[in-house]
Amino acid sequence: MFTHSRSDFPQGFVFGAATSAYQIEGHAHGGAGRTIWDDFAAGPGNVVRGEDGALACDHYHRYEADLDLLQAAGFDAYRFSTSWARVMPDGRTVNPEGLDFYDRLTDAMLERGLKPCATLYHWELPSALQDKGGWRNRDIAGWLADFAETIMGRIGDRMYSVATINEFWCVAFLSHFLGHHAPGTRDIRAAARAMHHVLLAHGTAIERMRGMGLSNLGAVFNMEWATPADDRAEAAEAAALYDDYYNHFYISGAFKGRYPDRVVDALGPHLPDGWQDDFGTITAPLDWAGVNYYTRSIIAPNDGPWPHHNSVPGPLPKTQMGWEIYPQGLRDFLVRTAAEYTGDLPLFVTENGMSNADTVAGGVVQDDARIAYFQSHLAAVRDAIAAGVPLKGYMAWSLMDNYEWALGYEKRFGLVHVDFETLERTPKASWHAFKAMLGGD
Ligand code: FCB
User: How far apart are CA 286 and CA 116, in angstroms?
Assistant: First the structure.
């Protein structure tokens, strides 16, 4: 159990749990189109056991029971995402079944008193758009805005909030420079273009949705604390560069209309022509910002190609992902984000959680390590609020075990256990801990 209670947080503080479309829905159903994750999973060595999201948690058919679990725990909100390929299988043409699904899902949330918090893009780019260059192609800004208009034309009237992009760094850098996520590109030029275009697409979609009269619009930035591996000046510089291209680049683009010097110095030649002229769109005003936080990295300089550094193992206890447990980073990021970028704008923790090798024994999943993780990170949230951060909500990742991208179904992040053979759901001890804190039924 947590030592926190609802009354330890400000009046109206929103507690939610998060998921994303491709990770849970089952893309074989409902006329969804092929996505870059289906293609990536089909490539050799990209995903553990070559697993994909064809069935996932079969949330497409089981969403009502899944939403019941959110309601029963006493959550106020559900952060979900809308699959572009479900709504527009080729990225451009509407699939009515896809719109109908998100319409049903929205009403099912409202029936349960859950605030619908939508994210437009959580990584399942339609393959047909990848064929046209995907995030390397500047036209993606208009394509994303068209998708935003289509899906929000149907469900936007009932959303509590809408975010454009989930985790800009992952969409651009992880997927186009490091090649660890779809489309699996390892190309500095592709990466630089994706880094800029993902922000341009974000701003273009915001402008389009604003024009439709939608409100409470935001975006979700992932942040990873960077700690130098040792006392050398080179290590400090390496960590500062990591911090710049991982953490500052996107939020600085969106809120300050500029990119960090260290990143422009290295990637400037690869950015698309005229990038400096796009900040009017990229800085389209937002109503809130989301921070996703999991861990920190220990950064050591090396002699390799740019960025001339790598992550090395740290001394702290680790999750099943091998990620260090470092709650201080969450508090520090929230304070820094408000101080440097967002000021009085409402902030939300839009993801936070850990994977654990959970097993069901006698109908019980005793995930004490996860309870401890949430306990310490909720304390960090309270510290940030006490320091004056206008934090308005916290979303746990994730409602249930799901498709953990390149790691397939092996890494379990859920508050609810999913048996991927039978698809049976079993609430874990951490779900019960949230329920006790939130006053669920
Ligand atoms: C985040 C992603 C989410 C999930 C968690 C563990 O980077 O947004 O989909 O994979 O990590």
Answer: 18
The residue ranges of every structural domain in the chain are 6-438
Q: Is the peptide bond before 307 cis (omega within 30 degrees of 0)?
A: yes
Query: Which pLDDT tens digit goes with each residue over 284-300?
Result: 999 999 999 999 999 99
Give the other-Cβ count within 10 Å of 439's Cβ: 10
> What is the chain's alpha carbon radius of gyration, rounded to the nearest angstrom?
20
Sign of CA dihedral 117, 253, 390, 348: positive
Mean pLDDT of 123-130: 99
Which residue CA neighbors atom 9 of ligand 1 most closely?
20
Ligand 1 cavity residues, CB under 6 Å: 20, 23, 166-167, 170, 222, 292, 351, 397, 404-405, 413
Q: Choose the catalytic residue: 167, 224, 324, 404.
A: 167
| Contact yes or no for 249/241 (Cβ under 8 A) | no
Q: Could you identify the atom of ligand 1 that is nearest to the CA of residue 170?
A: 7
* CATH number assigned to the domain covering 6-438: 3.20.20.80
Residue 105 has pLDDT above 90, yes or no: yes
Best mutation site among 22, 397, 412 for ligand 1, i.e. most ligand atoms within 8 A of its Cβ? Answer: 397
Given a cut of 90, whether residue 8 has pLDDT beyond it is yes
What ranges make up the beta strands (E) of 105-202? 115-121, 161-166
Side-chain-side CA neighbours of residue 83 (13 Å): 35
pLDDT at site 350: 99
Q: How far apart are CA 290 and CA 390, in angstroms?
A: 12
* Ligand 1 atom nearest to CA at 167: 8
What is the C-alpha to C-alpha distance for residues 170 and 224, in angstroms, rounded to an integer? 12
Pull the structure tokens for residue 391. Answer: 């934090």
Q: Which residue among 117, 351, 355, 403 is best mutated to probe the pocket of ligand 1, counting the most ligand atoms within 8 A of its Cβ? A: 351
123 C-alpha to ligand 1 centroid (Å):
10
Give pLDDT tens digits for 313-329. 999 999 999 999 999 99
Q: Is the pLDDT of residue 73 over 90?
A: yes
> pTM here?
0.98
Assess whether pLDDT exceeds 90 at residue 441. Answer: no
